[in-house]
Amino acid sequence: VALAMLPLYAALGFWLLRDRFNQPITPGIAVRETFARVLLTTTHQINGEHFRARWFLDSITWIWVAVLLVSVIALLRPILRLTNETDADRRDAFELLHRYGNSSVAHMTTWPGNTLLLNHHRDAYIAYRLIGDVALVLGDPIGSPDGCAAAIREFTHLTRHRGWTPCFYGVGEALRAEYARNGLAMMHVGEDAYIDLPALDLRGRRWQDARTAINRARRSGIELELVDASQIDPDILRQLREISDAWLRAKRMSEMGFTLGSLSGEPDPEVRFAVAIDDQRQVHGFVTWLPIHGTGGWVIDIMRRRPDAFNGIMEFLIISSALAFRDEGAPFVSLATAPLARVEREGEEIGTVEQAVIGLAGLVEPVYGAHSLFEFKNKFSPRWEPVYIAYPGASVLPKIGYAIVRAYMPDLGLNTLRDLVGGAQNTPDAHAKLAPPTPAS
Prior knowledge:
Elements: H1 2-16, H2 27-38, H3 51-76, H4 87-100, E1 115-118, E2 124-131, E3 134-138, E4 142-143, H5 145-162, E5 165-171, H6 176-181, E6 185-196, H7 208-219, E7 223-228, H8 234-250, E8 272-277, E9 283-292, E10 297-305, H9 313-328, E11 332-339, H10 352-368, H11 370-378, E12 383-391, H12 397-408, H13 414-426
Parallel strand pairs: 3-5, 10-11
Antiparallel strand pairs: 1-2, 2-3, 2-4, 5-12, 6-11, 6-12, 7-8, 8-9, 9-10
Helix pairs in contact: 1-2, 1-3, 7-9
C-alpha cells in the first residue's frame, strides 16, 4: 500500500508546492525527479527555494527508504524464530511433561528441532518448529487444562502477529473446543492404536499370530531383553545400529525426524530397547519404546529386523514387550499412529476435506503403505483413538502438507523422492515399505 501511495504523494507535493522550486514543474520533470530521489542519485534538476519545498524533496527519499525497510522486515518475518528459549524454560517444560504428558507424541516434544514455548503463566507449553511460514506444533499443548487453553490462545495470537500459519499436528479430541475458539478447524488424519494391558492375555483366535510368533522364537532360542537405554551393552547397541543402517540402505533412506526416532548420537536415557536376542548374543530385531510420562504407558518408536530374521519377529517383539510392561504395572502401550486410516464411529460425519484425504489414501497406498500399516497394527486388537490436525482452513492445507513432509525429511529432493518411491515399489514386504510420516509412527 505504501509503495502504491508514494507516486500519489509525490504528484500531490509537486502540485501544491509548484511555485516553491527553482523552475516550473511539469509532469515529466516531476516523474524524473521522483525517480532520481528514489534511486538515490545525485543528478537532481529541482531544488527547493523554500524550506517546505526542500523538506518535501528530501521526504521522497526517506519515505522510499522506509518502504524498503518495512518490505524487507515483512519478507523476513516468517523466518525470524523465537530464540529466547532458556535453560529454565526447558526445565519447567520437562516438569510439565512428566506430570501432564499423556499423548503418544508428548516425549518427542523434547527432541532436537523443536522450540519449547511456555505460556504466560508457565503452566503449559507447546513444541513447534518453523518451516517456511508454517508454525508446526507437535501434538496438543502439555500442561494443566487452563494452561493448555491459554497456550493455544497465546500461540495463535503470536502466529497472527508474525504472519505465520499455525498447525497443531497429531492432536486428540480433548481440546477441540479450544481450537475452534481460536479459529482452527480439525481434520482427521489417522488413528492411534492402544493395547490396554491389565486385561491382556493371549487366549482366543485373534491372538493366534502372536502365540505362533512367541513359540517360533522359543524354538529358535530367541528371547526378549527389555533394557534401559542408559544400561544397554555397547556391543548390543553396535548391533542395533548395524541392523538399522542396513535397513535404511535397503530402503534407500536416511534417518528421518520429527516423530521418528534415530539411533544416531547418544541414546535417550528414558528410552527402553526391546531386543530379540539368541544364546550367541546375536540380535535378530528390536523395537524402541518411549515413555508416556503422565500415564505410565509406553509408545513404540523404531522397529528394525535383520533381513534373515524369521517371519513374525516384530509380532514377537511387540507382544512380548506388552506382556513385560503389563507385569511392571503399565496401563497400556501405544503402537502409535496408523496414518490416513479411519475407524468408523457411530454418528460421525465426514467432511469434504476429509473425504478428499480418504481418496488420497487410496491413491498413494501402492507407495505409502498406510493401509498395510493399519492392518499390521490391527493384528493386536487395539483400542483406536482418532488423530487430527488443527489448522486455519482448507486454503493453507497445501503448504501445511509440504511443511509436514519437510519436518520428517528436511533434505528431501527429487532424487531422494525417486529413491523412496522406487524402494517402496520394489519390495514385496508390505511392512517394509516407507514408514509413513505420522505422529510416533
